[in-house]
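Two proteins follow. First one:
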Amino acid sequence: MTKPRHRLRKIKLDEISVVDLGADPNATIQIFKRGGADMPGDLDALTEQMQKAAESLADNNQKLAAETALRKAAETRAANAEAALATAQASIAKSEAEADPFSAILKSADPVVAAAFKKLQAENEASAKMIAKMDEDRAIAKMASEITADMPNLPVKAEAFAPILKRAAGALPAEDFAELHRVLKAASSNLAKVLTAGGFGSSVIMKGSAETALDVKAGEIQKRDSISFAKAYTQAVAENPGLYTDYLAEQKGRAQ
């Protein structure tokens, strides 16, 4: 026998309370609230709508996951780029410190100390340039004495030709310069033979015999006393006043 059911309609409820044990254990209460016109009219339509909402949510979650993966990949690339940049900067700083340790030290030093170091560095550089110039002058003087001693009959002034020959020595391989030196020496020797055979004294083309003799003696004094060619020439004149008198006579004869 079917139990009788009683339906209450058109009731306005102010409150619904839920209790752990109702007064009528056989009573069943169902409450429905219908929405507006957009609310589906049946369960199938509601189920379809919920399924579409679930699919849309899944699609959005998938897109969000893809965007999250892309963002993490971009963050990883940025972190790697920053690490590579830091490594490069450290390597550059290390190279600069190894190449110029003073600069690396001065960057972190007290300004007063740094200024003192920079001043000292400038003075050292100036001294190095001065020493290099002195070495250059000594090398040219040595070359001039070698020209005077080995090639006295060449139509050149030793002091003017020495820088040219020194530049050639620096630019040419050693064996090439040695060959050039040999050829010039041989040319000087052959020229002396030609002049002697023709009844002329040697070294008459650009220099008189007295001038050549003074150059030779100056070269000998330079090697002996380890002094500059200019000082050696002055010493040669002082030690050989007769040669210097002959030299002045030769110069006077050329002028006439």
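Second one, unrelated to the first:
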Amino acid sequence: MTYITVSFSGGKDSTAMLLHMMELGEHIDEVINVDTGMEFPEMYEHIEKVRKVVEKAGIRFTVLKAEKSYEYYLLEHPYHSEKYGDMLGYGWPGPYIRWCTKHLKTDLIKQYLREHPDVIQCVGLAADEQIRIERGQNKKNRHPLVEWGWTESDALRYCKERGFDWGGLYDIFKRVSCWCCPLASMSELRKLHDTHPQLWAQLQEMESRLTTVRGKTMPYKHDYTVADLSKKFAREARAKSQQTDILSFGMGGGTYE
């Protein structure tokens, strides 16, 4: 018998998919959430809110979490590199070496689902994410949002209409994934710096520890270290503030002695 699972990251797309499948009365055997340990605090609150709805409906809600943490793989995991020899810690993940996705997400799901040979995994890819849809093609995957013709904006609107707002995360960020991700755009990292100073401080602390392990500071985003980004964002904020003051003065906001 086919086992129906819903992959629930907690983001707008997987949330809309899950809630609407339930609304339609579709059969779901299990909802699976993978906890990377590096989600926004607001995201954890949202996941808990959805979990209660799912379990109230009598559907199994499972949280998977790797034995080792993000910081362990970043700083301590021993491995051998053909180029550099024996190493400790992978360092910051990048577009070609996304060890975080492998060790903290996909490997866990694959291992967990091995006990169900005939499984259909419902994945929350929206109808306007064509590249991701093509990249994630798998006969055992189903994409309900694509079937319904729902775009990312449709998914977010649907969730908000039902009272799920992630504590305002989607009013700040276009995409909400692990808060520490170096693959986030520069504008998203600037928003993280400005709106979540406690998380940015944690990112700086991780960079300090990584520098100790490697003996040098490693770039975090392009050629920038986290410290470089802190200075860059501070400079930009000062420049913006000065420009605002000048414009305000020019429009009559200043006074002459």
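SUMMARY FIELD: The first helix runs from residue 12 to 23. The chain has two domains: 3-174, 184-247.
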